[in-house]
Amino acid sequence: MNVYLLQVINGVGIGMLYFLLAVGLSIVFGLLRFVNFAHGAFYALGAYLCFQALQFGLDFWAALILAPIIIGALAWLTEKVMLRYVYAQPHEFHILITVGLALAVQELIIVGWGPLGVDVPPPDVLQGVVMWGDFVYPKYRLFVIGFTALLAVALWWLLEGTRIGSAVRAGSESTEMVSLLGINVFRLFSLMFALGAGTAAIAGVLAAPIRGAEPFMGVEALGVAFIVVVIGGMGSFTGALVGGLLVGIVQSLMSTLWPEGARLMIYVAMAAVLLLRPHGLLGRG
Length: 285
What we know:
mainly alpha; ABC transporter involved in vitamin B12 uptake, BtuC; 11 helices; 2 strands; plasmid; BCAA_transport_permease; transmembrane helix
Protein backbone atom coordinates (compact mmCIF):
# COMPACT_ATOMS: atom_id res chain seq x y z
CA MET A 1 0.00 0.00 0.00
CA ASN A 2 1.31 3.47 -0.85
CA VAL A 3 2.91 5.01 2.23
CA TYR A 4 1.46 8.45 1.49
CA LEU A 5 -2.07 7.08 1.21
CA LEU A 6 -1.52 5.33 4.54
CA GLN A 7 -0.40 8.61 6.08
CA VAL A 8 -3.46 10.41 4.72
CA ILE A 9 -5.68 7.80 6.40
CA ASN A 10 -3.68 8.24 9.61
CA GLY A 11 -4.16 11.99 9.25
CA VAL A 12 -7.92 11.59 8.94
CA GLY A 13 -7.98 9.59 12.19
CA ILE A 14 -5.80 12.11 14.02
CA GLY A 15 -7.77 14.97 12.49
CA MET A 16 -11.06 13.60 13.77
CA LEU A 17 -9.62 13.48 17.29
CA TYR A 18 -8.48 17.08 16.83
CA PHE A 19 -12.01 17.92 15.72
CA LEU A 20 -13.48 16.46 18.92
CA LEU A 21 -10.97 18.50 20.90
CA ALA A 22 -11.62 21.73 19.03
CA VAL A 23 -15.38 21.65 18.54
CA GLY A 24 -16.14 22.15 22.23
CA LEU A 25 -13.60 24.95 22.47
CA SER A 26 -15.07 26.61 19.39
CA ILE A 27 -18.69 26.34 20.56
CA VAL A 28 -17.90 27.67 24.03
CA PHE A 29 -16.05 30.66 22.60
CA GLY A 30 -18.72 31.30 19.97
CA LEU A 31 -21.53 31.24 22.52
CA LEU A 32 -19.91 32.59 25.68
CA ARG A 33 -17.00 34.58 24.22
CA PHE A 34 -15.07 32.73 26.93
CA VAL A 35 -11.42 31.70 26.43
CA ASN A 36 -11.07 28.31 28.11
CA PHE A 37 -7.45 27.33 28.69
CA ALA A 38 -8.58 24.42 30.86
CA HIS A 39 -10.00 22.57 27.85
CA GLY A 40 -6.88 20.42 27.45
CA ALA A 41 -7.23 19.29 31.07
CA PHE A 42 -10.58 17.65 30.24
CA TYR A 43 -8.85 15.74 27.43
CA ALA A 44 -6.11 14.53 29.79
CA LEU A 45 -8.66 13.52 32.43
CA GLY A 46 -10.52 11.51 29.80
CA ALA A 47 -7.39 9.52 29.02
CA TYR A 48 -6.63 8.90 32.70
CA LEU A 49 -10.20 7.90 33.53
CA CYS A 50 -9.96 5.35 30.73
CA PHE A 51 -6.78 3.98 32.32
CA GLN A 52 -8.38 3.95 35.78
CA ALA A 53 -11.50 2.19 34.52
CA LEU A 54 -9.31 -0.63 33.20
CA GLN A 55 -7.54 -0.79 36.57
CA PHE A 56 -10.92 -1.19 38.26
CA GLY A 57 -11.75 -4.14 36.02
CA LEU A 58 -14.08 -2.28 33.67
CA ASP A 59 -13.58 -2.47 29.92
CA PHE A 60 -12.77 0.19 27.32
CA TRP A 61 -16.42 0.52 26.28
CA ALA A 62 -17.50 1.35 29.83
CA ALA A 63 -14.77 4.00 29.98
CA LEU A 64 -15.92 5.47 26.67
CA ILE A 65 -19.38 5.97 28.18
CA LEU A 66 -18.49 6.91 31.75
CA ALA A 67 -15.57 9.30 31.18
CA PRO A 68 -17.47 11.97 29.18
CA ILE A 69 -20.42 11.75 31.59
CA ILE A 70 -18.20 12.20 34.67
CA ILE A 71 -16.09 14.97 33.15
CA GLY A 72 -19.12 16.69 31.65
CA ALA A 73 -20.71 16.73 35.10
CA LEU A 74 -17.52 18.11 36.66
CA ALA A 75 -17.33 20.80 33.98
CA TRP A 76 -21.00 21.70 34.53
CA LEU A 77 -20.35 22.08 38.27
CA THR A 78 -17.17 24.11 37.66
CA GLU A 79 -19.00 26.44 35.32
CA LYS A 80 -21.80 27.03 37.80
CA VAL A 81 -19.68 27.63 40.92
CA MET A 82 -16.60 29.32 39.43
CA LEU A 83 -16.48 30.34 35.79
CA ARG A 84 -19.93 31.93 35.51
CA TYR A 85 -18.82 34.85 37.65
CA VAL A 86 -16.03 35.93 35.30
CA TYR A 87 -17.89 35.88 31.95
CA ALA A 88 -18.38 39.63 32.04
CA GLN A 89 -14.73 40.28 32.90
CA PRO A 90 -12.00 40.97 30.31
CA HIS A 91 -10.39 37.99 28.58
CA GLU A 92 -7.35 38.34 30.84
CA PHE A 93 -9.49 37.09 33.74
CA HIS A 94 -10.70 34.15 31.64
CA ILE A 95 -7.12 33.20 30.90
CA LEU A 96 -5.95 33.52 34.51
CA ILE A 97 -8.73 31.44 36.03
CA THR A 98 -8.70 28.69 33.39
CA VAL A 99 -4.90 28.43 33.30
CA GLY A 100 -4.99 28.09 37.09
CA LEU A 101 -7.65 25.39 36.79
CA ALA A 102 -5.60 23.54 34.16
CA LEU A 103 -2.48 23.63 36.33
CA ALA A 104 -4.47 22.38 39.33
CA VAL A 105 -5.82 19.44 37.32
CA GLN A 106 -2.34 18.67 36.00
CA GLU A 107 -0.92 18.57 39.52
CA LEU A 108 -3.80 16.39 40.72
CA ILE A 109 -3.06 13.96 37.90
CA ILE A 110 0.60 13.81 38.99
CA VAL A 111 -0.42 13.25 42.61
CA GLY A 112 -2.98 10.59 41.70
CA TRP A 113 -1.26 8.69 38.90
CA GLY A 114 2.38 9.77 39.09
CA PRO A 115 4.59 11.95 36.89
CA LEU A 116 5.27 9.25 34.30
CA GLY A 117 2.97 8.20 31.50
CA VAL A 118 0.89 5.04 31.50
CA ASP A 119 -0.05 2.68 28.68
CA VAL A 120 -3.66 1.96 27.78
CA PRO A 121 -4.29 -1.11 25.61
CA PRO A 122 -7.00 -1.10 22.95
CA PRO A 123 -10.00 -3.39 23.53
CA ASP A 124 -9.38 -7.04 22.64
CA VAL A 125 -11.84 -7.01 19.74
CA LEU A 126 -9.96 -4.13 18.09
CA GLN A 127 -6.43 -5.48 18.45
CA GLY A 128 -4.60 -6.54 15.32
CA VAL A 129 -4.94 -5.31 11.76
CA VAL A 130 -7.42 -5.39 8.89
CA MET A 131 -6.09 -6.93 5.66
CA TRP A 132 -7.86 -6.29 2.38
CA GLY A 133 -5.62 -6.97 -0.60
CA ASP A 134 -2.54 -4.81 -0.04
CA PHE A 135 -4.45 -2.67 2.46
CA VAL A 136 -3.17 -3.36 5.99
CA TYR A 137 -4.31 -1.05 8.76
CA PRO A 138 -4.79 -1.29 12.56
CA LYS A 139 -8.35 -2.17 13.55
CA TYR A 140 -8.39 0.31 16.38
CA ARG A 141 -7.48 3.27 14.18
CA LEU A 142 -10.23 2.32 11.72
CA PHE A 143 -12.66 2.21 14.64
CA VAL A 144 -11.55 5.70 15.73
CA ILE A 145 -12.23 7.07 12.23
CA GLY A 146 -15.67 5.44 12.02
CA PHE A 147 -16.73 6.26 15.57
CA THR A 148 -15.67 9.90 15.41
CA ALA A 149 -17.43 10.28 12.04
CA LEU A 150 -20.69 9.01 13.60
CA LEU A 151 -20.17 11.29 16.58
CA ALA A 152 -19.61 14.26 14.25
CA VAL A 153 -22.94 13.51 12.54
CA ALA A 154 -24.67 13.33 15.94
CA LEU A 155 -23.15 16.64 17.03
CA TRP A 156 -24.10 18.24 13.71
CA TRP A 157 -27.70 17.09 14.21
CA LEU A 158 -27.71 18.43 17.77
CA LEU A 159 -26.45 21.84 16.68
CA GLU A 160 -28.33 22.12 13.39
CA GLY A 161 -31.50 20.11 13.85
CA THR A 162 -32.69 20.74 17.40
CA ARG A 163 -34.11 23.64 19.38
CA ILE A 164 -31.02 23.62 21.60
CA GLY A 165 -28.82 23.94 18.52
CA SER A 166 -30.91 26.83 17.25
CA ALA A 167 -30.53 28.58 20.60
CA VAL A 168 -26.75 28.00 20.53
CA ARG A 169 -26.46 29.44 17.02
CA ALA A 170 -28.63 32.40 17.97
CA GLY A 171 -26.66 32.89 21.16
CA SER A 172 -23.41 33.01 19.25
CA GLU A 173 -24.83 36.06 17.47
CA SER A 174 -26.62 37.72 20.40
CA THR A 175 -27.16 36.35 23.91
CA GLU A 176 -29.69 39.14 24.52
CA MET A 177 -31.88 37.82 21.69
CA VAL A 178 -31.84 34.33 23.22
CA SER A 179 -32.93 35.76 26.57
CA LEU A 180 -35.83 37.58 24.91
CA LEU A 181 -37.00 34.26 23.47
CA GLY A 182 -37.56 33.01 27.01
CA ILE A 183 -34.55 30.68 27.11
CA ASN A 184 -32.52 30.43 30.30
CA VAL A 185 -29.17 31.63 28.96
CA PHE A 186 -27.12 30.51 31.95
CA ARG A 187 -28.57 27.00 31.73
CA LEU A 188 -27.66 26.93 28.04
CA PHE A 189 -24.15 28.13 28.87
CA SER A 190 -23.72 25.36 31.45
CA LEU A 191 -25.00 22.72 29.04
CA MET A 192 -22.67 23.78 26.22
CA PHE A 193 -19.68 24.00 28.56
CA ALA A 194 -20.39 20.46 29.78
CA LEU A 195 -20.85 19.25 26.20
CA GLY A 196 -17.51 20.77 25.19
CA ALA A 197 -15.75 19.10 28.12
CA GLY A 198 -17.46 15.80 27.32
CA THR A 199 -16.30 15.80 23.70
CA ALA A 200 -12.74 16.59 24.87
CA ALA A 201 -12.98 13.66 27.30
CA ILE A 202 -14.11 11.34 24.49
CA ALA A 203 -11.09 12.46 22.47
CA GLY A 204 -8.88 11.63 25.45
CA VAL A 205 -10.38 8.15 25.85
CA LEU A 206 -9.98 7.42 22.13
CA ALA A 207 -6.42 8.78 22.06
CA ALA A 208 -5.26 6.82 25.12
CA PRO A 209 -4.72 3.45 23.34
CA ILE A 210 -2.83 5.27 20.56
CA ARG A 211 -0.47 7.50 22.58
CA GLY A 212 -0.98 6.49 26.20
CA ALA A 213 -1.73 8.95 28.98
CA GLU A 214 0.72 11.36 30.60
CA PRO A 215 0.28 14.42 32.81
CA PHE A 216 1.28 17.05 30.25
CA MET A 217 -0.78 15.78 27.34
CA GLY A 218 -3.42 18.43 28.00
CA VAL A 219 -1.00 21.28 27.27
CA GLU A 220 -0.09 19.78 23.90
CA ALA A 221 -3.74 19.11 23.08
CA LEU A 222 -4.76 22.66 24.00
CA GLY A 223 -2.22 24.13 21.58
CA VAL A 224 -3.44 21.94 18.73
CA ALA A 225 -7.09 22.70 19.55
CA PHE A 226 -6.47 26.45 19.35
CA ILE A 227 -4.71 26.02 15.99
CA VAL A 228 -7.68 24.02 14.66
CA VAL A 229 -10.16 26.64 15.89
CA VAL A 230 -8.14 29.48 14.37
CA ILE A 231 -7.87 27.67 11.02
CA GLY A 232 -11.53 26.66 10.91
CA GLY A 233 -12.97 29.86 12.38
CA MET A 234 -14.22 30.69 15.86
CA GLY A 235 -17.68 29.38 16.66
CA SER A 236 -17.97 27.22 13.53
CA PHE A 237 -18.81 23.51 13.83
CA THR A 238 -17.91 22.82 10.21
CA GLY A 239 -14.79 24.94 10.59
CA ALA A 240 -13.63 22.77 13.51
CA LEU A 241 -14.16 19.65 11.37
CA VAL A 242 -12.32 21.04 8.34
CA GLY A 243 -9.56 22.52 10.48
CA GLY A 244 -9.06 19.28 12.41
CA LEU A 245 -8.80 17.21 9.23
CA LEU A 246 -6.43 19.72 7.63
CA VAL A 247 -4.12 19.81 10.64
CA GLY A 248 -4.20 16.02 11.06
CA ILE A 249 -3.39 15.30 7.41
CA VAL A 250 -0.64 17.94 7.24
CA GLN A 251 0.97 16.62 10.42
CA SER A 252 0.73 12.98 9.29
CA LEU A 253 2.12 13.59 5.80
CA MET A 254 4.95 15.76 7.07
CA SER A 255 5.96 13.09 9.59
CA THR A 256 6.98 11.04 6.52
CA LEU A 257 8.32 13.82 4.31
CA TRP A 258 10.07 15.90 7.01
CA PRO A 259 9.71 14.36 10.49
CA GLU A 260 11.60 17.18 12.24
CA GLY A 261 9.28 19.79 10.77
CA ALA A 262 5.94 18.03 11.17
CA ARG A 263 4.79 20.24 14.03
CA LEU A 264 6.25 23.34 12.41
CA MET A 265 4.13 22.78 9.31
CA ILE A 266 0.97 22.97 11.41
CA TYR A 267 1.84 26.55 12.27
CA VAL A 268 2.78 27.25 8.65
CA ALA A 269 -0.67 26.00 7.58
CA MET A 270 -2.30 28.23 10.20
CA ALA A 271 -0.29 31.25 9.04
CA ALA A 272 -1.20 30.57 5.40
CA VAL A 273 -4.92 30.36 6.23
CA LEU A 274 -4.81 33.57 8.28
CA LEU A 275 -3.07 35.43 5.46
CA LEU A 276 -5.82 34.41 3.02
CA ARG A 277 -8.78 34.43 5.43
CA PRO A 278 -8.09 36.31 8.69
CA HIS A 279 -11.29 34.97 10.31
CA GLY A 280 -10.52 31.34 9.42
CA LEU A 281 -11.74 29.15 6.60
CA LEU A 282 -15.36 29.17 7.74
CA GLY A 283 -15.36 31.89 10.39
CA ARG A 284 -17.66 34.86 10.37
CA GLY A 285 -16.09 38.20 9.56
